[in-house]
Amino acid sequence: MHTILHATVFGVLALATLGGAVKVISTRSIIHAAFWLFPVFAGIAGFYLYLDAQFLAAMQVLIYIGAILVLIVFAVTLTRNATSTDEAQTNGLFIPVLLAALVLVYALGTTVFNHLWPIESNVWLDAVPLSAAVPGVMVTDVSALGLVLLSQYLLPFEIASVLLLAAMVGAIVLARKERTPAATAGVAAVEAAPADVRELSNV
Amino acid sequence: MDALRNLAHIIWYFIAAHEVLRSFVVAVCSLVFMLVIVLIAIWMERKVSADIQNRIGPIRTGGLLGFVLQSMADALKLLLKEDLRPAGADKWPFVVAPYLVFVPAFLVYLILPFSATWVPQDLKIGILFYSAVSAVPALGIAMAGWSSNNKWSLLGGLRAAAQLISYELPLGLAILAVVLLYGTLEMKGIVAAQWQHWWMDLITLPALLIFLVAGMAEVSRAPFDLPEAESELVAGFNTEYSGMRFATFFLAEFSASFFISALAVTLFVGGWSLWGVDIWFAQHVLHMDPSTWNLAAPASIPFIMKAFWFFVFLAKSFVVLWILMWLKWTMPRLRIDQVLNFGWKILLPAALLNLLLVSGIGAVLPRLSKPLTATQDVAPIHIDDSVGLAPVAQTPPPLPPLRDDVPAPGTP
After folding, report:
1. Does position A203 have pLDDT exceeding 70, yes or no?
2. Measuring CA to CA, which residue among B221, B235, B247, B237 is closest to residue B74?
């Protein structure tokens, strides 16, 4: 009973993730490609949940679906030819991308096949002690994750923060427009308008 | 009668012993609860708006039963309407979008502590589940706006995406203040801490204000209802929707606004607890012995108290919902630039400042010396110097065994 259940859950999640991923690269409409990312991200969140990593699943949904995917959709709707299905789908980088993909497949494949996965033991899912970092605390514990991030892995954590900060500052610098006097006058006129409207409505 | 009770017992054992079945029953119960709440909320909205605009509101249906029948009539009308789909619409995103908005709005009820031990599913990540799931409707609304193939819809969808992303930050920071103070993500633990120390609610008062403002923007209620501003965008992202698909959006909106009120109550206003008055009442009026109550063992608390707390929770939530409606019907709609400026330049700094304040208070607060006797066994004060103030137990209560061979606790 439980084996069938597990197989079904895994199958549905795998189908959603891989099927969505195939549609992302095969669909001709760029906005549909963005929409198809939803089953991919949701499927991966489902895998995390299935492995009892609730925190990771929540973060996956929050960041990938709630922020990144919404921003992608937002950006795509603002691009020219978003509805077009005639745009070229390749950009001449076939060989380099194929090489990069092969390197990734090799790295993941060797990890998957060489690592000793303790699949046979039943305690695998919910009780692996993080004994090295926080003795006696379970991996699934959110507070353990926080403690590890702020003690053992503090440096990588801070480096990632600085990287994100730099990216944010860079984005603001790129997006910020120099205001010419004429543009400033225009903005002032727009800002003044509602006040007039308010006066009119008070009559 | 006995046969009936035996049958009920058999059904209950069967359900309790099968995790999948139990989840299904919990889901159906939550859905029914949500639908009933929405029916009441719609009627309430009509009456409150009428009151504020000096009208009477709907009076043709039902008399005293109006609060049930009026919403029923509304729902039936929507059900019987023709379901139109524009010829130029992007087919499958148009169909999928309402569900992406509705399912999260219903899913979040999973973690709501309705009473001391009545939580559909107390997840380990608790409030984080809400933060994650509530981020999905933005995608659904953007999808609806895009796929309708209508410029008003598209503008509404874009506004919604911008607004929801902007206000998620202050909302999350307001929630973070509470999590920081009580040292737990679990909803049960957060309410239990407020039950023991009612004055903690005063510390999170600024966070409550930030939460309510950001929450109103999150559920796109006036004065933040720009995604569906009828005077400029016809009906925004749901212009092209009709019949049942429109009803789905409508349901999600009302469900989300009740949930925001209920969450505000749970995180900032003591949830189901009555700030100690409930314990006093139980001791002196009902002559109960609260010292034997144990939140980790549901059977130790009398049913009457759980039911009482449930009604306290509902009453508090509806009061907050009423305040939100009051604001909705008395405030003019903001412009999109005002909304975004307010979100990024005022609300976000305020939320960060509040977080700083709360963490400062949490750091200097004397260790909470001793809990109320009523809850001594419930949540042993667990002080961990590395975590800071932690008034509630760090370890979750043991889950009820639900394997086939063990009957669930609390079963007769």
Report:
1. no
2. B247
**CB-based contact, B160 to chain A, within 8 Å:** no
Does B6 map to a domain? no
Task: Judge whether B17 lies within some domain.
Answer: no
* Residues A3 and A70 grouped into a single domain: yes
Q: Is residue A115 part of a domain?
A: no
Query: Does residue B66 sit within a domain?
Result: no
Our count of domains for chain B comes to 1
| Predicted pLDDT of residue B374 | 36
Asked, for residue A42, whether it belongs to a domain, the answer is yes
Domain housing A190: 134-203
Domain check: are A73 and A140 in the same one? no
CA B404 to chain A, closest CA, distance in angstroms equals 12
| Pick from A122, A139, A127: nearest CA to A55 | A139
| B98 CA: distance to closest CA in chain A (Å) | 14
Structural domain boundaries, residue B294 = 81-390
- Using a CB–CB cutoff of 8 Å, tell me whether B161 touches chain A: yes
ipTM of the complex: 0.73
Q: Which of A155-169, B270-284, B320-334, B350-364 has the lowest mean pLDDT?
A: B270-284
Answer whether residue A87 is part of any domain: no
CB contact under 8 Å between B138 and A38, yes or no, is no
What's the CA dihedral at B163, B172, A41, A79 to 10 degrees? 20
The pLDDT value given to residue B375: 39
A94 part of a folded domain:
no
- Contact yes or no for B178/B194 (Cβ under 8 A): no
pTM: 0.76
**What domain count does chain A have?**
2
Question: Which residues of chain B have a CB within 8 Å of the CB of A54?
Answer: 123-125, 129
pLDDT by residue (tens digit) across A93-120?
888 989 999 999 999 998 888 876 655 4
Residue B405 is assigned to a structural domain of this protein: no
The beta-carbon neighbor of A65 closest among B136, B146, B386 is: B136
**Which of B101, B122, B125, B348 is the best mutation test for A, with the most CBs of A within 10 A?**
B125
